[in-house]
Write a sequence for this structure.
């Protein structure tokens, strides 16, 4: 294995295509790798985005959209006939209604037309289980109870109407094992040959997937360590004469300023790597921890999952200063150290089709090894005149998007309620979200009647409340909220589950919200709670002692406005459960009910009763606030806010 060192001039750092070759032009040749991650079915533009955080919001161009991604990819491929398009996972799942309503078939069809060849499996590929993932790979219509769903096989991007071709690219996941067979669920890697030299692309799913996906979605599957899996594959690949190895991994990090240092920039750039993706306390990020254990055979890592853009490579750009005029861009030799300390280029392209990663690699045909790597993240700018001309000349992908938009519009544009103010998914210092409060109330309302579960309180996982929440992007209120707005905030299609929990279990599950406590992961996961329930938590407490007080006031939320129906009681007072054996009917979604997001206590809930889908509960609740009825006012005193207090 040749040790690579790539030092580029500033001009080359901005070229995105040219780079220094470590072998002579007669022997070495260039391959273009085009990568992106976390598409999440964003057929349409997700909004505006800047090349760095110094660009004023008003100056950031509209970005993304399947037809623009396709046109940018086509332009990149035209620059070099030796090319491949790859992904780092989450191409489907948590998608906008334009894709989700049709079971993410539109996402797969547009990805086919963009030209993807290999994609690592992300956690969201398992949202609907392994069988549904295989259907999306292999094609065929969606059937439920033996009946084809009318929203499946529209075929706007497939061979014919009424059909679904499936993915023409290969989903890869080397570390996901089907426990029934002991084999990988999907291929571990893909190989493409350039000028007689094979290049391997290993696909990797984050091993923590079972903790963030509905357990039924990963039933019968085992998720192995990412670095161990890659390293075990290296001898097998070398036995096939392969020395050029790229890892596509659905795991990532963030650009950060490292605590205690003064030489890291406070801004970020899509081609930056501030803090070298260390955590702010100086510890390794998840992706850095993987890379530092990788075999020296790995030449490049394309990552994802965190929805961040970064380019940790020898042409990384540092951005300093407070304005574009005084920003200093300086190439510096960096990357992430592998197991022998060599710096490996690591990239990520944000999410939703905002950015593409263009990587030029130089391959020595004699050694069959990648001897130089030059990554560059490129904004998918919808204002590019040449790109727009290309789309006009070849509107195939644009027409597919338009067809699905027309099919989804009647539902997406239907008004379901009016709201008087924005309700975002941004949490306050206690962890409470305006949008989360509303969703929890809706789920309680759907299950409060005795015949539907007899619930008295509801919990909602914060991660299921998606950006931006219930808002009018134009900033004008009152605002007529549409079904599309609601679905964007709650896109998972989970069903409600009502169960019986004791007072002790209630305290225990609330204690599970905090990082590294009782099976929780490395970050706090503050649940959103319904009207009538309040609690206080102590940030200075230790595991099992953070919940100070919990009160419950019986409240009927099936009417508008909600009505208090009984006196307040302490479930927990001064950290002590007052009546540990007393029981309460509690509603959560099926993701949480099966232990999702680390809430294992909920698995012990008894007398479980299934309920409506979460989006149906939400729209039914909001119907109480549709004209001619009064609009929903999130500041109304009857909503019992704040519900969560931090001390």
């Amino acid at each position: 294995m040749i040790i690579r060192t790539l030092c580029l001039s500033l001009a080359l750092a901005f070229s995105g295509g040219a780079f220094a070759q470590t072998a002579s032009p007669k022997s070495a040749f260039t391959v273009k790798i085009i990568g992106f991650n976390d598409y999440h079915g964003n057929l349409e533009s997700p909004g505006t985005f800047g090349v760095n955080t110094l660009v004023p919001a008003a100056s950031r161009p509209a970005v993304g959209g399947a037809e623009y991604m396709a046109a940018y990819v086509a332009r990149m491929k035209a620059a070099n006939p030796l090319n491949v398009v790859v992904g780092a996972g989450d191409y489907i799942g948590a998608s906008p209604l334009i894709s989700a309503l049709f079971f993410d078939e539109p996402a797969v069809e547009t990805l086919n037309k963009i030209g993807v060849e290999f994609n690592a499996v992300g956690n969201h590929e398992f949202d609907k289980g392994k069988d549904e993932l295989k259907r999306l790979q292999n094609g065929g219509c969606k059937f439920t109870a033996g009946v084809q769903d009318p929203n499946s096989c529209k075929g706007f991007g497939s061979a014919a109407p009424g059909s679904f071709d499936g993915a023409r690219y290969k989903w890869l996941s080397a570390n996901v094992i089907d426990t029934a067979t002991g084999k990988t669920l999907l291929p571990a890697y893909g190989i493409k040959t350039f000028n007689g030299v094979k290049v391997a692309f290993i696909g990797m799913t984050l091993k923590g997937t079972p903790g963030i996906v509905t357990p039924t979605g990963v039933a019968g599957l085992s998720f192995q360590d990412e670095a161990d899996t890659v390293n075990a594959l290296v001898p097998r690949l070398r036995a096939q004469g392969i020395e050029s190895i790229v890892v596509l991994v659905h795991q990532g990090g963030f650009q950060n300023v490292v605590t205690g240092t003064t030489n890291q920039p406070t801004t970020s750039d899509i081609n930056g790597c501030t803090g070298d993706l260390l955590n702010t306390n100086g510890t390794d990020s998840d992706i850095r921890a993987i890379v530092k254990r990788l075999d020296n055979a790995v030449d490049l890592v394309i990552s994802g999952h965190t929805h961040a853009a970064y380019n940790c490579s020898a042409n990384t750009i540092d951005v300093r200063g407070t304005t574009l005029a005084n920003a200093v861009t300086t190439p510096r030799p960096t990357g992430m150290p592998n197991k022998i300390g060599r710096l490996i280029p690591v990239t990520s392209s944000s999410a939703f089709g905002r950015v593409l990663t263009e990587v030029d690699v130089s391959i020595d045909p004699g050694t069959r090894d990648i001897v130089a790597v030059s990554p560059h993240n490129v904004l998918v700018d919808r204002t590019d005149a040449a790109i727009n001309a290309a789309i006009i000349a070849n509107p195939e992908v644009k027409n597919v998007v338009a067809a699905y938009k027309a099919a989804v519009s009647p539902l997406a544009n239907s008004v379901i309620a009016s709201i008087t103010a924005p309700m975002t998914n941004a949490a306050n210092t206690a962890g409470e979200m305006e949008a989360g409060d509303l969703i929890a109330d809706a789920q309680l309302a759907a299950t409060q009647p005795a015949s539907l579960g007899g619930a008295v309180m509801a919990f909602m996982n914060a991660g299921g409340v998606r950006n931006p929440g219930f808002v009018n992007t134009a900033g004008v209120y009152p605002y007529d909220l549409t079904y599309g707005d609601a679905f964007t905030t709650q896109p998972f299609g989970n069903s409600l589950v009502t169960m019986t929990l004791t007072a002790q279990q209630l305290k225990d599950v609330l204690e599970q919200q905090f990082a590294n406590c009782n099976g929780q992961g490395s970050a706090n996961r503050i649940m959103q709670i319904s009207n009538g329930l309040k609690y206080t938590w102590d940030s200075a407490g230790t595991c099992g002692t953070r919940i100070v007080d919990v009160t419950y006031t019986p409240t009927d939320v099936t009417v508008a406005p909600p009505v208090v129906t009984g006196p307040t009681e302490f479930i927990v007072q001064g950290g002590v459960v007052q009546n540990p054996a007393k029981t309460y009917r509690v509603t959560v979604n099926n993701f949480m009910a099966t232990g999702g997001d680390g809430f294992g206590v909920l698995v012990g809930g008894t007398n479980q009763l299934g309920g409506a889908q979460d989006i149906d509960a939400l729209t039914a609740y909001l119907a109480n606030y549709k004209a001619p009825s009064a609009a929903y006012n999130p500041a109304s005193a009857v909503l019992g806010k704040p519900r969560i207090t931090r001390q």
